[in-house]
């Protein structure tokens, strides 16, 4: 006879439920209390918290990079306009010098 282990079915939690649990964790409620109240393993709660923190940091880093790119983009556009103006001035100067011969 085969010795089969009974495996527990993996529970899926709705994102809204996870968000509420994370709010509780952030507000300072103890992990052990939340785990006991909702019947969720403490290590799973810690994992959710870690993943949430990682996502928050990634978003912050992404928005920081976006603001740097926007500033650089503005600076480069200003440089392009200055160069266009310089080119137009040089064209006019060259035209004046060419016609005076």
In terms of topology, how is this protein built?
Layout: H1 15-26, H2 31-38, H3 42-99
Task: Write a compact overview of the structure shown.
With 101 residues, this protein is an all-alpha fold. The protein has helices at 15-26, 31-38, 42-99. The chain has one domain (15-99).
Description:
The protein is 77% helix and 0% strand. By secondary structure, it is mainly α. The protein has helices spanning 15-26, 31-38, 42-99. The model has no long low-confidence stretch (mean pLDDT 86). It is rod-shaped, with a radius of gyration of 31 Å. The chain has one domain.
Strand content: under 5%
**Poorly predicted regions:** none
Number of helices: 3
Described by strand count, sense and barrel closure, the largest sheet is: none
Quaternary class: single chain
* Count of domain modules: 1
In total, how many beta strands? 0
Query: What level of helicity do the residues show?
Result: over 70%
Q: Span between N and C termini?
A: 109 Å
Mean pLDDT: 86
Report Rg: 31 Å
Given helix and strand content, the structural type is: mainly alpha
Shape type: rod-shaped
What pattern of helices and strands is seen along the backbone?
HHH
List keywords for this structure.
101 residues; 3 helices
């Amino acid at each position: 006879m085969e010795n089969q282990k009974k495996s527990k079915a993996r529970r899926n939690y709705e994102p809204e439920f996870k968000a509420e649990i994370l709010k509780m964790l952030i507000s300072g409620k103890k992990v052990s209390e939340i785990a006991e109240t909702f019947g969720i393993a403490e290590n799973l709660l810690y994992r959710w918290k870690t993943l949430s923190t990682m996502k928050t940091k990634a978003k912050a880093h992404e928005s920081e990079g976006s603001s740097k790119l926007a500033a650089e983009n503005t600076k480069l556009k200003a440089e392009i306009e200055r160069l266009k103006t310089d080119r137009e001035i040089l064209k006019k100067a060259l035209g004046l010098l060419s016609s005076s011969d």
